Amino acid sequence: MAAPVALITGAAHRLGARTAEVLHARGWNVVIHYRSRADQAAELVDKLNRERADSATSIKADLTDMEQVVSLAKTACQHWERLDGLVNNASVFYPRTTEDSGEDDWNAIMGANLKAPFFLLKHCLPELKKNNGAVINLIDIYSEKPLNDHPLYCASKAGLAALTRSWAKDHAPEIRVNGVSPGAILWPEGDAAIDPTYQQAILDKTPLARTGNPDDIAGAIAYLLCDAPFVTGQILSVDGGRSLNM
User: Fold this and answer.
1) Of 34, 94, 153, 198, which residue is the catalytic one?
2) In a domain, 69, yes or no
3) Whole domain around residue 20: which residue ranges?
4) Is the pTM of this model over 0.90?
């Protein structure tokens, strides 16, 4: 029997890479999408293929470019001639007030976080329907209770939450669609980095009083993808209880 296949966006590092490893360990073949991290994607693909031959591949695509989004979907479906899971993990996150936001910010954030998942599913639908597949969207606890100075990011994730529920209704019973909302797992990097004082303030409001780890998210994704045949239209918060104190 052929191995099930998952396309995971933003899977060259951090949560996406760990998700690919966890699904691969459960017998899935994985299509690792990346935009700029070619070396990390290649290293991960090599590692997984050493563990099981011809079980991982990578595809480069800019999720704000519609031609590349369509090509990503088609190539992912064609590589092993099937697709069973779509994990919309890739995300653009950086602060920008309304006053300081421009159209480029709108296109970058909304394009990667909301538009790309929509059109990826559109072009993966035939294969997912044929295989009674599943979609997992990475949402955010800030989709419901916004983070200061991130209006575009919060709106994009709120939109993705709405798509999750809409798709679950529209594409049942062939396809299940669920979401995972991480809390403090890995702190943002680069321009989106959070001051250590603010990090501690977040932990002070987290009932479990610590950050999570990538396995918490990867495990939740694997559960919804593999072990929850009667679950659809749900968004699971994996946040140490942080959403109770927002």
Assistant:
1) 153
2) yes
3) 5-237
4) yes
